[in-house]
Design brief:
By secondary structure, this protein is α/β, with parallel strands linked by helices. Helix content is about 30%, strand content about 15%. Helix 1 (about 1-10) packs antiparallel against helix 2. Bound molecules: calcium ion.
Length: about 525
Amino acid sequence: MEMLLWKEGLTGFDGAGDAGSNSTGRSRAGKNSWVRAMVGVFSFLVLFSPAAVSDAATPPGRPNVLFIAIDDLRPVLGCYGDEIVVTPNIDGLAAQGTVFQRAYCQQAVCSPSRMSLMTGRRPDTTEVWDLATHFRKALPGVITLPQHFKAHGYHCRSIGKIYHGGGAPAKDPPSWSEKPLYDIARDAKVRYATVENLRGEGLKRSATESADVPDGAYIDGMVCEAALAALTGLKKGGKPFFLAVGFRKPHLPFCAPRKYWDLYERAKIAPRASVEHPRGAPEVALRSWKELEGYSDIPNDGRIRDGKVAELRHGYYACVSYVDALVGRLLERLDNLGLRENTVICLWGDHGFHLGEQGLWAKANNYELSTRVPLILSVPGQKKLGKASEALVELVDLYPTLVEACGLGMPQGLEGTSFRPLLDEPGRSWKTAAFSQYPRAFEGNRHRGHSDIMGYAIRTPRHRYVEWREWQTRKVIARELYDHGEDPEEMRNVAGERSYAEILRWHGDIMAAGWRGARPEGADPVVPDAP
Ligand SMILES: [Ca+2]
């Protein structure tokens, strides 16, 4: 049975989803050859992995995991101090867990961030720096987070966007016990609901939509319904479960049922805190991916009038409240099924988002607004509830944290650090830095792979430091330093200012020591992966 499911899933590797931007003849031929190699690896795993034998020997009492991914959500949430947003359900979850105020993604774009989290490895190890590459190309035998749970007797399901939303990188059959639902949803009919937008062409129609429709008119409502049914089924199944639920809002386009738009008066949503690019920032740092500019109501020159900016910001808030309501339904079902007390709940965003601040839109950069993510964790038995932690944590830490929270053995090769101790002691001293990165091509705003230039960023308690390096020579071609004590919007690059010379040097040392050097005292030793 399991073998059958895997075979079915494997067809997903061969372009069963959208055509994607990687469907050239050359890349397809390359893909097919490694797909064949992967089939061999997967067959080996089916026959010999602990998952094939351990299902019957599950220790009793292991907590379940409800793993909620929210696409492109920056910490616009009541529990993060936003006074306008309406997010009672996520705020309620925060009251029963820990809110990580300083959590950072490893690369501020969907697939590289998610694949880093799901493999517990950083982008230079997964070699996933773009939207077209699958992590099993560089790491064919890697045990993903859900796969590790599966090997310990968990029933693992994926509903919605967990890996990536389209093409081969959306699929990883070894991770799941059942075929995922709604992992690819590139149909305009589930993205838009108004007559005008449904008449349009392509995936990018208008950038916002307010429609008088029920929650289930859009893909996220469908994902929620499927997840509710899955929870009921998993309860009946009696095994510990790992249920991953991935919501696609507030990713563009900002489409949500009208009742969520009506929660806000547009004029009361704060205007963007900054409009211009940061002073003294290198050009390479400021290049936009032009994600927003492709929509029918957005001018191609990127000059968005103030009214449209306000509409986009309103739309983002509406989408956040829409997803919050869906999260509330999941939590309610968990309660009604009597599962809450034995379920670890983890809610995370894959990266942040610029809503016009710093003259930038969307993600794909190394700034605070694009790299900082919401992260809330609620674990049965944790000593401190409803506390915020200011500790620097990273999405790559989630894998070991969930493993420790559920009492499973820690696999080798992970590049994050379990922050389970922060749930009991949120104020304890922790990492000296969080690490992010973003690639750039010498010219243009799109890149492939590691590309020509890599921007390596660190966030320390007070500063953000970035080194832009030529990939081949590793030569530093530009530096940025922002002082959040003086400049929380990151509007002034002080890397060249004499008074910051010592701080610049100190950050260069932290960068050189890398993530291993930034780990907290007393953290478990890093166990390298088997050769
Ligand atoms: Ca995303």
